[in-house]
Design a protein that fits this description.
CATH superfamily of the largest domain in chain B: Thiolase/Chalcone synthase
CATH topology of the largest domain in chain B: Peroxisomal Thiolase, Chain A, domain 1
Strand order of the largest sheet of chain B: 3-2-4-7-1-8-11-10-9
Largest interface: A-B, 37 and 37 residues
Number of strands of chain B: 11
Number of domains of chain B: 2
Number of helices of chain B: 14
Oligomer: heterodimer
Order of helices and strands of chain B: EHEHHEHEHHHHEEEHEHEHHHHEE
CATH architecture of chain A: Beta Barrel
CATH class of the largest domain in chain B: Alpha Beta
Strand content of chain A: 35-45%
Shape of chain B: globular
Number of domains of chain A: 1
CATH class of chain A: Mainly Beta
Shape of chain A: globular
CATH architecture of the largest domain in chain B: 3-Layer(aba) Sandwich
Mean pLDDT of chain B: 97
Order of helices and strands of chain A: EHEEEEEEEE
Low-confidence stretches of chain B: none
Number of helices of chain A: 1
Chain lengths: 137, 381
């Protein structure tokens, strides 16, 4: 069990089932989403219930390659993120068309371009916190 | 259905007033304008977005009681930054349903009492706290993501963003209720400190305290109460996904497009018929997208629209000539009601130096969060 490792730079919610599973996946280098058994809709990040009302979900491994859709550099962070600032948050579209929001490292907004090929990789923030992030391919 | 009374508190950093005192500052002139007492009002709808900002649970009950509505029915509505317009829509619904004939709608918020980093924190938590907030995305950050994409797809420039700020400050300087009554130069706006690239300080609305109030009445009552009722002829409302990454497009707000079309259809008008509008300029990019989403120009041409001066008085559609959220301020719950007050003033010809001459049809467009809520109202004198 990875109940002690939390998801995200900061969070206030309990680590419910979907989060525990995402954390386990990241520790094995995988990006996991859920798929509704009833209607087939895929969710990345995963949901425990489907928007169609279905509540039986399968897990699937999402593609980790994609392209940047947009980005911003946060220089005025909320209090809880002050020690990490400045940081760049981006949205990328993955090979299966799904979109994900995460931070990107190893770049500056000046060199960053929409359309940049990126990869989603696990990022261990500290001993008790993990997250996924983008890095240039 | 008509608006028969309007009232507005001074927006600003109001350490001198609590939320109920601000509300009362807006309610008194609204009642006076309608020449009514609270005894003649059937119900209240109170819009407050954040209990944390007000440092008060059930702020609706607090305000309803303080302004003397006593045992009359009341409830509080919340739709983030569109709370005020949700109040107007709710007031309309109560009257339409026959539960009331005359309704007092109050929007109020205190935001500076908690400090700007705390305010940033709580506004960010209005995003998806499971999968997006944990990356440190902020409220300006969400709009910055849209700005980057809009600039990429359409060549919208940093200068065009700043031009929105220059316009809204120009008009805000003429509005005695505005938080920052001062003009800014294009150079100042372009050079201000970065908040979330590509947005800087002058691309962001103010964090303000304030309140506004309107009295709404059924057609029959409105004709008896007022010589100059302003009719609500169209309403639209739509929603969108909580997670911004789930949206297929980031160069506009789908909820604005849907709500706008509903309101136009109901009122039997087109964007060309609008003489004056208040649109949701929480960030400069938001106003540029509103031009496009509401059909004042084509998608992608919002930057050009401001550059050509089309949203100034004398242009195609004067927009936010009360200063907008940018200069007037954006006390969340008050904003939609304040927009209503401004449009009513314009259609009555009472806007003074900011008057759009001969305005007959007006529009208010109020967005909650990043389009999770949107309400559009069309008014006619």
């Amino acid at each position: 069990m990875n109940g002690e490792v939390k998801f995200g730079y900061v969070s206030w919610l309990p680590e419910t089932g979907v989060v525990v599973k995402v954390v386990e996946g990241l520790q094995q280098g995988k990006l996991l989403g859920t798929k509704c058994i009833k209607c087939g809709t895929r969710y990345l990040p995963p949901r425990a219930q489907c928007k169609c009302g279905g509540h039986e979900m399968d897990w699937y491994e999402a593609p980790t390659r994609g392209k940047l859709v947009t980005f911003t550099m946060v220089t005025f962070p909320p209090d809880s993120m002050a020690k990490h600032a400045p940081y760049i948050v981006a949205v990328a579209e993955l090979e299966d068309g799904s979109r994900l929001l995460a931070q990107i490292t190893g770049v500056t907004p000046q060199t960053l371009q929409v359309g940049l090929p990126v990869q989603v990789v696990p990022h261990q923030i500290s001993q008790d916190r993990i997250v996924y992030k983008f890095k240039p391919q | 259905m008509a608006v028969v009374g309007i009232g507005h508190a001074k927006f600003g950093k109001r350490a001198d007033a609590t939320i109920r005192e601000l509300a009362a500052e807006a309610v008194a002139p609204a009642l006076e304008d309608a020449k009514l007492t609270t005894a003649e009002i059937d119900a209240s709808v109170i819009g407050v977005a954040g209990d944390v900002f007000a440092a008060q649970g059930s702020p609706g009950a607090l305000i309803h009681d303080y302004v003397g509505m006593g045992s009359k029915p009341s409830f509080r509505v919340e739709a983030a930054c569109a709370t005020g317009s949700a109040g107007v829509r709710t007031g309309w619904s109560l009257i339409k349903a026959g539960l009331a004939e005359v309704v007092l709608v109050v929007g109020a918020e205190t935001m500076t009492h908690v400090g700007s980093s705390m305010a940033t924190e709580w506004m960010a938590r209005a995003g998806d706290t499971r999968w997006e907030y944990p990356f440190g995305i902020t409220f300006p950050g969400f709009y910055a993501l849209m700005a980057t994409r809009h600039m990429h797809e359409f060549g919208t420039s940093r200068m065009q963003l700043s031009m929105v700020a220059v316009k809204n400050h120009k008009y805000g300087a003429l509005n005695p209720f505005a938080h920052l009554q001062k003009e800014v130069s294009l150079e100042e706006a372009m050079k201000s400190v970065p908040i979330c690239h590509p947005l800087n300080l002058y691309d962001c609305c103010l964090i303000s305290d304030g309140a506004a109030a309107v009295v709404m009445a059924s057609e029959e009552r409105a004709r008896k109460i007022s010589d100059s009722p302003v009719w609500i002829t169209g309403l639209g409302s739509a929603s969108d996904t909580m997670m911004i990454a789930e949206r297929p497009s980031l160069v506009g707000l789908t909820a604005s497009q849907i709500a706008g079309e509903q309101a136009y259809n109901m009122a039997g008008v087109t964007p060309n018929d609008i003489d004056v509008a208040c649109t949701h300029d929480c960030f400069t990019i938001a106003e540029i997208m509103s031009y496009e989403d509401l059909g004042f120009c084509k998608k992608g041409e919002g930057g050009k629209f401001i550059e050509e001066g089309q949203s100034y008085i004398g242009g195609k559609v004067p927009i936010n000539v009360d200063g907008g959220l940018k200069s007037k301020g954006h006390p969340l719950g008050a904003t939609g009601v304040s927009m209503t007050v401004e449009i009513v003033k314009q259609l009555r010809g009472e806007a003074g130096k900011r008057q759009v001459s001969g305005a007959e049809i007006g529009l208010a467009h109020n967005v909650g969060e990043t389009g999770q809520y949107c309400m559009v109202h069309v008014f006619k004198r």
